[in-house]
Amino acid sequence: MVDNNSNRIDPSAIIASTAKILGKVAIDRNVVVHDFVTLYPNVNIGANVEIFEGAVLGKPPTGTKALARRFSPELKSTDVGKDSIISPHCVIYADVRIGEGTLVGDNASIREQCRIGKYCLISRNVTINYNTIIGDFTKVFENTVITGNMVIGSRVFIGALVATTNDNNLGRRGYDESFIAGPIIEDNVGIGSGANILPGVRLGAGCMVGAGAVVTKDVPPKTLVMGIPARVVRDLE
Amino acid sequence: MVDNNSNRIDPSAIIASTAKILGKVAIDRNVVVHDFVTLYPNVNIGANVEIFEGAVLGKPPTGTKALARRFSPELKSTDVGKDSIISPHCVIYADVRIGEGTLVGDNASIREQCRIGKYCLISRNVTINYNTIIGDFTKVFENTVITGNMVIGSRVFIGALVATTNDNNLGRRGYDESFIAGPIIEDNVGIGSGANILPGVRLGAGCMVGAGAVVTKDVPPKTLVMGIPARVVRDLE
Amino acid sequence: MVDNNSNRIDPSAIIASTAKILGKVAIDRNVVVHDFVTLYPNVNIGANVEIFEGAVLGKPPTGTKALARRFSPELKSTDVGKDSIISPHCVIYADVRIGEGTLVGDNASIREQCRIGKYCLISRNVTINYNTIIGDFTKVFENTVITGNMVIGSRVFIGALVATTNDNNLGRRGYDESFIAGPIIEDNVGIGSGANILPGVRLGAGCMVGAGAVVTKDVPPKTLVMGIPARVVRDLE
Fold first, then answer.
1. Is B89 in contact with C193 (Cβ distance < 8 A)?
2. Does the interface ipTM go beyond 0.90?
3. Within C142-206, where are the H helices?
4. Of the candidates A78, B159, C100, C107, which lies 20 to 30 Å from C160 by C-alpha distance?
C-alpha cells in the first residue's frame, strides 16, 4: 500500500496494512495511521499525530451541477500539525491546515481551504465549510454547522447544534461572494447550544450568546445577548 | 472482490481493490468506486457516478424490537442516476432512487423507499427517512433531519439543522400511519436554518420560513413566516 | 485477521474477512460482523448481534491538550447485549454497556463509561457523551446531542436535534465536576424536536417538552411545557 520511494515516511511511524496512501505524502515520527484510513496525495502529517479508522485526508472537493459555488482551481497541501488527533470517519478535504494539538472528533468534515489553529476542538459531526479561518484554543461542539467564508477568533466556545449561515436569500440569487457573507466571531466569544447566527453578523470580542438565541444583528463586545431575536440583556464585566 | 459473471460492470469503470460487491450489481461507464465502499445486491450505478470511501449502498434495513414501525416486505433496487456523487461514509438503504447529477454529502443517510430527484444537494450528516419523495433541484443543508413519509417539491431550499417531525404524540401511541404524517413542502419553498416544522403542516408554494421559526400550522403560498410559533410577517412579491 | 487462540468466537458467527480484531474479544452465537469493522480488545458481543460496515467498537478515548476533562485511568470492557444492531460507521468507545435488543443508528457515537439499557433506539448521528446512563425502551432521535454525566430514565422519547448541555459557563471556568452537571430526565418524559435542555435541569417523570422549547429550570412531573424560556402550559392527566 505504501510506496516509500515517493513518500517521506519516518521509520517510527506505524501504518496499518489496510490504510491506503494514494500518492506522495509526508509522515513524521511516531505517527499512527489506523485501519481503513485513506490519504490522498499531498498530505503532510506532523509528529505524534494519530489518525483513526476510516478517516479520509486530502480529498479534493468534487462538484456536480447541483452546486452553485465553483471550486478554486489551485489546491495546496493538507497539513496536520504535531500532536493532533483525527478521529474515526473524519473527512478532511484538500488544502486544509490544522494546527498542533487539535482534536477533530468522529465523523467531522473540514472542507477545502480552511485554516484551523492550535489546540482546538472540532467535535463530532461538525462541518467546517470552505474557506473558513479559526484561531487557537477554540472549541466547536457536536453537530454544529460552520458555514463558508467565516472568520472565527481564538478561545471561542461554540456550543452544540449551533447554526451559522452565509446567505440571506436562501439560495434564490445563486452564489456570488458579493452577498455571501458568513458571520465574524471575535476572540473569547461564547455561544450557547442551539443558537443561530445569521449572515454577516459580527459577534464582538468577549460577548456571550444565550442558548437558543437567534442573532440577527451585530453584538457589542462584552455583552450578553439572549432571545429571539437576540437582545442585549446586560454587560459582562 | 468482483465477480464479473454475475454483474454488469462496464470495462471503463474503476473499482478499488478494497471495495466489496456483495451480489449482483450494474455499473455503467466511467464510474469510479473508491476504497472501502460496500455495494449490496441489486444496486445500479449510472454513468460517471463517483462513490467515495466507506460509502454503503443498497443496505437492507434492519430492525429490532425497539422499532415501532415495521418494514415493507418487498424492497426494489437501489438506483443512482448518472453524474451523481456519493460522498464518504454515506449510507444509502435498499429501494432508493437518486436522480442524475445529485450530490450526497459526507455521512448522509438515505433510508429505504426514498425517491430523490435530479440535481439535488443532500448535504453532510443529513438523514432522509423512509418513504420520502423529493423533487428536482432541491437542496437540504448540513445536519438537517427529514422525517419519514414526507413529500418535498422541486427547487426547495432547506437550511442547516432544520427539524421535521411526523408524530405529535412523541411515540406514546406507537406507530400507526393513520396519525403519522410528515410535513408537505411545496415547490420553491425556502426554510431558514434551525427551523422546526411540525407534523402534518403544509408549506405552500414559494413561502419562506425564517431561521429558527417553529411552524405549527399551514403556511399560505408566497408568504414569509417567522417566530415561535411562526406567523405571517408579509406577502412575498 | 482473527486469532482464535486468544479469542472466544462461537463457530456460528460470521466475520467478514476485512474486519479487524485487534485483541482479545468474545463473540457469541449467530453474530454477524460486516466488512471494515474494527473491534478493539476487550469487546464482548452477545448472541445474534449484527455489526455493520465501518463500525468501531471498544476504542479507547484519546485526548489532546485541547481537552479540559481528564480521562478515567481504568476502562472496563465494552459489552453489546444480544439481539442488538450496530449500524454502519458507529463509534462505540471503551467501557460501554449496551443492553439487549438496542439499535444504534448510522454514524452514532457512544463515549466511554456510558450505560445504555435494553430495547433502546439511539438514532443516526447521535452522540451520547461520557458517563451517561440511559434506561430501557428509551429512544433518542437523529442528530441529538446527549451531554456528559447525564441520567436518562426508561421509556423516554427524545426527538431529533435536541441539545443538552452541562456547563453554564461555556468553558470559561475549565472542567470541574463540582459545577459540570448534565440534565436529569426521569421516566416517561417526552421531548419535542429541537428542544434545548440547560445544565442541571430536572425533567420530572411523565412531563412533556414542546418542540423548540428552551428549558431553563426544573419541570414538574406530568406537565406540558413550551416556549422560550419554557413555561408550564397545562397538566397532563
1. no
2. yes
3. none
4. C100
SS3 C17: coil
- B160 touches A at CB < 8 Å: yes
Of B35, B85, B227, which has the smallest distance from its Cβ to A38's Cβ? B35
Chains near C, with 3+ CB pairs < 8 A?
Answer: A, B
Q: Residue holding cell 490522498?
A: A40
Q: Which residues of chain B have pLDDT under 70?
A: 1-5, 64-73, 172-179
Q: How far apart are CA C209 and CA C164, in angstroms?
A: 13
Which chain C residues have a beta carbon less than 8 Å from that of A143? 125, 127, 143, 145, 161
**Contact by Cβ (8 Å): B179, B161:** no
CA atoms within 13 A on the CB side of A98: 33
Q: What is the pLDDT of residues B142-171, one digit of tens each?
A: 999 999 999 999 999 999 999 999 877 777
Rounded Cα gap, residues C73 and B102, in angstroms: 47
CA B62/CA A34 separation, integer angstroms: 28
Intra-chain end-to-end CA distance of chain B, in Å: 57
Smallest CA–CA distance, residue B143 to chain C, in Å, is: 7
Angstrom distances, CA of residue A138 to CA of A111, A193, B92? 18, 15, 34
Q: What is the DSSP string of C109-135?
A: EE-TT-EE-TT-EE-TT-EE-TT-EE-
**DSSP 8-state code for residue C194:** T
pLDDT one-digit tens code per residue, C155-206: 999 999 999 998 777 766 665 666 678 899 999 999 999 999 999 999 999 9
Could you report the per-residue pLDDT of A67-96, keeping only the tens digit for each? 666 666 678 999 999 999 999 999 999 999
C25, C44 Cβ separation under 8 angstroms: yes
pTM of the model: 0.94
Residue C235: CB atoms within 10 Å: 11
Q: Of C204, C75, C183, C186, nearest to C135 (Cα)?
A: C186
| Chain A residues in contact with C91 (beta carbon < 8 A) | 87-89, 106-107
Query: Is residue C69 less than 8 Å (CB to CB) from chain A?
Result: no
Distance from CA of C98 to the nearest CA of B (A): 13
Nearest residue in A to B17, CA atom: A20
Give the whole-angstrom CA distance, residue C218 versus residue C73: 34
Q: Is C230 on the interface with B (CB under 8 A)?
A: no
Within an 8 Å CB–CB cutoff, is residue B233 touching chain A? no
C26 forms bridges with which residues in the sheet?
Answer: C8, C44
Residue C48, chain B, CB below 8 Å: the answer is no
Output the nine-digit C-alpha cell for A166.
Answer: 452565509
Helix (H, G, I), strand (E, B) or coil at A33: strand
Contact B143 C161 (CB under 8 A): yes
Closest Cα in chain B to A228: B227
ω into B199 cis (within 30 of 0): no
* DSSP designation for B61: P
Asked if the C-beta of B98 comes within 8 angstroms of chain A's C-beta atoms, the answer is no
Q: Could you tell me the domains of chain C?
A: 1-61+68-111 (2.160.10.10), 132-237 (2.160.10.10)
